[in-house]
TrEMBL record:
Membrane-spanning segments: none
Domain MATH, residue spans: 90-237
Descriptive protein name: MATH domain-containing protein
A GO biological process held by the record: regulation of canonical NF-kappaB signal transduction
InterPro entries the record matches: MATH/TRAF_dom, TRAF-like, TRAF1-6_MATH_dom
Amino acid sequence: MSIADQALSTISLPKLSIEKTNNNFFENKFLDEDQISEQIRLQKYLRSQIKQLIKEEQYIINSDVNVKLYKNELYKLQQQYAISRFLTNKETYLWHINNVQEIFQNSKQATQSNGISTSFYTYRGGYKISLKLYVNGHITAPDTYLSLHLTILRGPCDSYLNWPFDNPILICLYDTSAKQEHIFHTIKPEKYSECFQQPKMNENPSVQILEFCPLSMIFSKDYDYIHQNKLIIKILIDSWIPI
């Protein structure tokens, strides 16, 4: 119910009673006219208040819509900036996965889901990170999606680094077709606090992107994620990625 409807629902006009006896007809008539005049004044006042409420309600609705549009537009601009920075930034890690077709075939025949993994340092003497790709999906999404796990590993320079790790991580699966429909995922460290603390064991719990990319898109002729029997995944760790 709108604000205006709520205001209308509170209006209750008293029932006017007109006596028909000749003795007090004129007296009651004058009383009724006074009551009617009062009610008309009340109606005018309430009508003006309702109009004002409708204006205020519309302003609130418009403001809310404008805020949502602004946030949506800002997010798009930030994403475009991040993607542009991502695609041109040389301080990234490229993971080339060769013999992809054979890997897919072998994974289908395997009795358990074994991922393909790699590890790298964010910079010399930096954080050590592991990536593990399940080409036929993890147990929770078998034969449906590519699944990707990211893990902070124990490194030789951990005692000199700042913890917890707090830089956003942008991961991209390259589409080499003309469409350039790259698949992007941003990992926000604050959402996975236990995954980005200084490792006490050899590795921390993993951040799991179970639905990294639909397999239907991987093998679709409309895209070219598998180019020359190879997948390319690019990772950017930056201090400014809009999230």
